[in-house]
Design brief:
The chain is an alpha+beta fold. About 20% of the residues lie in helices and about 35% in strands. The relative contact order is 0.17.
Length: about 280
């Protein structure tokens, strides 16, 4: 069924408070592979650093999807583009405002993309912005794209400057769902099969966070304030317990990256971009 562009464009997202404690930031970091190398900066409350991509968990809300007449089973995460204006404190009480920023029509019988913009504010200051792309199966053919479109980012067609192998936990979705995303396809085999997968898959935002942690540790000495923008497109599933192989290319102002499932060489993330600031 095609998306209803008028219903989506007019949907109101009331501003709402969002609060988190150190425990939430630590749970997120553990889900993203922090701490296993002995570096405790992201997983211990003493001098706690917060992974920049943690901000996406504050933005998570899927209740509006059903309110706009879309079945959650038809929705998969298409990508994320995060703008990081200031590092997160170890704990805070903040405010969230969201809107539908744009719709992309892939054509009748094909998919439709919803671009949701979410801003996290401390007082009147925006400290974090998320552009989240949601792919709706069969949602195309609604009459043409409108509004803001997600930026197309490409990685170089040459050997990477560096590679990394990231191991994942077999129980990663069981941990990550405690941060808010309870979509059953990440946990229940029957729900995964109904969505076209032979078994549950990792949350796309979890895979995204795994690479964020690796990149921050590998290229930024673990300093969250150096990461100014972090973006990627979700190009395929990663199954819990699979290893992730990441290719990095040096670029002006930062890095490009792409990631694949190590055992079967399947695409997982593409069009990766990290903009870095000075230490």
């Amino acid at each position: 069924m095609p998306l209803d562009p008028d219903r989506l464009s007019s949907h109101a997202f009331p501003p709402r408070p969002v609060a988190y404690a150190a425990r939430d930031a630590i749970l997120y970091a553990l889900s993203c592979g922090a701490g296993v190398d002995g570096d405790l900066r992201f997983v211990h409350e003493a001098g706690l650093h917060v992974l920049p991509s943690f901000g996406q968990t504050l933005c998570f809300d899927d209740a509006w999807i059903a309110e706009c007449g879309i079945a959650l089973s038809r929705v998969v995460h298409g990508g994320l583009d995060l703008r990081l204006h200031r590092p997160f404190a170890p704990a805070a009480e903040l405010r969230l405002r969201s809107r539908i920023a744009g719709l992309t029509d892939k054509g009748a019988g094909r998919g439709g993309l919803i671009l949701q913009q979410s801003d996290v504010l401390d007082g009147k200051a925006v400290i974090f912005t998320s552009y989240s792309s949601l792919f709706v199966i069969g949602g195309g053919g609604f009459g043409g794209s409108r509004g803001m479109q997600a930026e197309t980012i490409r990685v170089p067609e040459m050997p990477p400057d560096a590679t990394a192998r990231i191991e994942t936990r077999p129980d990663a979705p069981l941990l990550f769902r405690l941060l808010g995303d309870r979509n059953p396809l990440h946990v229940l085999p029957a729900a995964a099969r109904a969505a076209g997968f032979d078994r549950p898959i990792m949350h796309g935002a979890n895979t995204f966070g795994l690479v964020c942690h690796d990149l921050l540790t590998r290229f930024c000495a673990g300093e969250p304030g150096r990461l100014r923008r972090f973006a990627a497109r979700f190009s395929g599933p990663l199954f819990p317990g699979e290893a992730l192989t990441v290719a990095y290319w040096q670029a002006a102002g930062g890095l490009r990256f792409a990631a694949r499932a190590a055992g079967r060489d399947g695409p997982v993330l593409d069009g990766g971009l990290a903009e870095l600031g000075a230490p």
